[in-house]
Specification:
By secondary structure, the protein is an alpha/beta fold. The protein contains twelve helices and twelve strands. Helix content is 35%, strand content 24%. The longest helix is centred in the middle third of the chain and has 18 residues. The protein has a domain of 219 residues: Rossmann fold. The chain starts with 6 loop residues before the first strand and ends with a helix. The structure holds adenosine-5'-triphosphate and magnesium ion. Magnesium ion binds next to helix 1.
């Protein structure tokens, strides 16, 4: 479906590394990704796979040093963000790109009231006077479902419950009318009912404003209910990308198959029936050679440790980085034979 739409954001062979005392952490290591207008793109993967670093790279908020975008490009509406001056980036971040993090307490200013914080952002981004900024703040808080919004303008962040604080964060993100919202684990800290309400709210706002959303989570259940397309990340690479239904019905990459096997099923009687992927995510300073997943992969072949699989489109819009697909394994064997002669 999304294939016919225009990409609003394009990551091209993105590499973001961290130069630490222990070595170079290859956190994002060759990511290609497109985000279309009005879609929710889910980004999933185990902890440490590079999801947040990808998001921070898009916003150009990687702490430098130790971090650096070392290769590749990020195109936002066709414009390169990698070489954009900081002053232009700041305007873009304020007006078109917005982010919601997991813990709103760290993103909200504890000593300013909610009303002051949102109105300030609106004054700054929309150039409204105090009176109009306050009216717009109330409207935004109502939009995200804060009851008695006008009365709560004078409250501080700690006076809101977790779910309400997350709604305030979304209101703050929306104060700049973003075209692209990056939500990094936006509901992980919330209980299940509130989580569903906040996710539902994001869907409504997407429909209303035709906003694109990158929804980052390690919870594949959240993705199933909310994303149009899904990108699966492993050790700094996207290993599979497709519309949400094929990802769940016919996952191709052994890692995606493992992740899906790891979701608790409503029908499973005992918790010990859960399948987990053996092993842990590799050290990104010296990741495994070839396919980074091969040491944990149940379908690994000897060649998997020798050659990095290409990212290939196996059916329209369904991409996989695995030697099991396409002709890459045969090609590699032919090349190897030729070298031995
Ligand atoms: N400032 C930093 N300095 C050094 N390494 C970093 C820094 N920030 C992130 N990393 C490394 O980059 C890798 C990817 O981290 P990232 O935070 O993107 O993972 P994630 O997929 O968001 O995980 P989670 O699900 O736990 O949020 C990790 O190995 C992490 O240790
Ligand atoms: Mg993260």
């Amino acid at each position: 479906m999304s294939e016919k739409k225009k990409p609003i954001l394009e990551l091209q062979d993105l590499h973001t590394y961290f130069y630490t005392e222990d070595g170079v952490v290859k956190a994002v290591d060759g990511v290609d990704l497109q985000v279309y207008e009005g879609e929710v793109l889910g980004l999933v993967g185990e902890s440490g796979s590079g999801k947040t670093v990808t998001a921070m790279s898009i916003l150009k908020l990687i702490p430098q040093p130790p971090g650096k975008i070392v290769k590749g490009d990020i195109l936002y509406k066709g414009q390169s963000l990698v070489n954009m001056p900081e002053s232009e980036l700041r305007t873009l971040r304020g007006n078109q790109l917005a982010v919601v993090f997991q813990d709103p307490m760290t993103s909200l200013n504890p000593v300013l009231t909610i009303g002051e914080q949102i109105a300030e952002a609106i004054r700054l981004h929309q150039g409204l006077n105090d009176h109009d900024a306050q009216l717009t703040t109330i409207k935004l808080l109502e939009l995200v479902g804060i009851p008695d919004a006008a009365k709560r303008l004078g409250d501080y962040p700690w006076q809101f419950s977790g779910g309400m604080r997350q709604r305030v964060m979304i209101a703050l993100a929306l104060s700049c009318n973003p075209d692209l919202l990056i939500a990094d684990e936006p509901t992980t800290a919330l209980d299940v009912t509130i989580q569903a309400q906040v996710l539902d709210l994001m869907q409504q706002l997407r429909d209303k404003f035709n906003m694109s959303i990158i929804l980052i989570t390690h919870d594949i259940g959240v993705i199933a209910g909310n994303a149009d397309r899904v990108a699966v990340m492993y050790a700094g690479n996207i290993v599979e990308l497709a519309d949400v239904i094929p990802i769940f019905k016919e996952p191709k990459h052994p890692y995606t198959q493992g992740l899906l096997g790891a979701i608790p099923s409503i029908n499973s009687k005992r918790s010990d029936e859960l399948v987990t992927i053996p092993g842990t995510i590799p050290n990104l300073i010296s990741p495994p050679s070839g396919c980074r997943f091969h040491p944990r992969c149940s379908k690994a072949m000897p060649e998997c440790s020798e050659v990095r699989p290409d990212y290939i489109e196996i059916t329209p819009g369904h991409y996989v980085r695995c030697l099991l697909y396409g002709t890459q394994l045969e090609n590699y064997k032919i090349e190897k034979k030729a070298e031995l002669k």
